[in-house]
Amino acid sequence: MAIRSLIINPGSTSTKIGVFEDESLLFDETLRHTTEEIAQYDKIVDQIDFRKDVILNFLKEKDVDIKSFDVIVGRGGLLKPIPSGTYAVTDKLVEDLKNAVGGEHASNLGGILAKEIADEIGVPSYIVDPVVVDELSDVARLSGVPELPRVSIFHALNQKAVAKRYAKEIGKRYDLLNLIVVHMGGGVSVGAHTGGKVVDVFNALSGDGAFSPERAGAVPPGALVDLCFSGKYTQKEVKKMLIGNGGFNAYLHTNDAREVYQKSLTDEYAKTVLDAFVYQVSKDIGAQAAVLSGNVDQIILTGGIAYGEYVVSEIKKRVSFIAPVTVYPGEDELLALAEGALRVMRGDEEVKEY
Q: What is the DSSP string of 207-276?
């Protein structure tokens, strides 16, 4: 009998939901929230009842019986660092989401909403591979400054989903493959997967690695220190330079990779910026090949920018000598969340407890 799931993925001004039977999407919807609606709440956690009502009212309008679901799955939030997997939403997990132990973010609402709705109808609730998944090897944590360890913040949900998808397609176990997975979206993360773990990854938010449409990636540390103490910028302004206004935004005043490509056809500077992006991502892939001692079964490109034929072809030119390249463009987060729950409910994976 098919397993019916409700998937909840909260964003800053919207809540995406999907209704699945097994892996088949019956329908999805982006429930948008106005600035005025969101502004009523001092903290993100204060939005719980509001967002829950929006979801339940929409399902009622669609004539969907809430009691028809076998499982409710929410997007994982900024929790404490945890290994990859599908986690039961426990009281402890909800407490840490409500207390924003890893910071304030709309995704913190995912697990809370899932548990509240699931408890009402007596079914399990889960989160799957939040961005704080941490499986780094000990040597990968050292940065050169003890006070500044390297940390694991990356597109864990999509990276794990496409890695397992590739393994399934070729009929091999994910934990027996050595993969380099490259997520290219608003942020970029390049991870080394071996033994079923991401043992090293370039921090996609505010750390190292290639610049992206909105983020600076690694910058010269000495120059950054001088900038911070120049007296010209506040701490908030410097952080915005690195996260939000970095990368394509800084050079070309757009975070749209498609627009950057179009500009690059007639503008030499734009082409240099786009080629620098390709160059840096390729360097990161090479670095992760070294992490895997050159034993790489496949390189996987994913995320929205992987739709771009120019970027994909140029990266392939630089890295195909390492391993063959497979492309899974886009980021189907709703399906990835559904698949995480299905693996547990079918007995393919053990559910984890936070």
A: SSS---SSB--S--HHHHHHHHTSSSS-HHHHHHHHBTSSTHHHHHS---HHHHHHHHTT-HHHHHHHHH
Distance CA 179, CA 319 (A): 13
Q: What are the residues whose beta carbons fall under 8 Å from the beta carbon of 48, sequence distance 6 or more?
A: 109, 112, 113, 116
State both tokens at 144. 């050169």
Q: Which pTM does this prediction carry?
A: 0.88
Mind listing the pLDDT tens digit of every residue in the chain (354 residues)?
899 999 999 988 889 999 999 999 999 999 999 888 888 998 899 999 999 999 999 999 999 999 999 999 999 999 999 999 999 999 999 999 999 998 888 899 999 999 999 999 999 999 999 989 999 999 999 999 999 999 998 999 999 999 999 999 999 999 999 999 999 998 999 999 999 999 999 988 877 999 999 999 999 999 999 999 999 999 999 999 999 899 999 999 999 999 999 999 999 999 999 999 999 999 999 999 999 999 999 999 999 999 999 999 999 999 999 999 999 999 889 999 999 999 999 999 999 999
Q: Is the dihedral of CA 278, 335, 339, 50 positive or negative?
A: positive
CA-CA distances (angstroms) from residue 70 to 67, 320, 349? 8, 43, 17
CA angle 327, 182, 80 (to 5 degrees): 135
**124: three-class secondary structure by DSSP:** coil
Residue 297, token pair as written in the block? 């079964």
Given strand 4-10, what is the order of strands in its sheet? 24-32, 14-21, 4-10, 71-75, 125-128, 86-88, 352-353
Torsion of CA 170, 173, 175, 181, to 10 degrees: 20
Q: How far apart are CA 200 and CA 192, in angstroms?
A: 5
What tokens does 88 get? 């039961």
Integer Cα distance of 232 and 301 in angstroms: 39
Is 326 in a helix, a strand, or coil?
strand
Distance CA 342, CA 194 (A): 23
DSSP state at residue 174? G
Burial label for 171, CB within 10 Å (0-12, 13-18, 19+), is: exposed
In contact, 318 and 282? CB cutoff 8 Å: yes
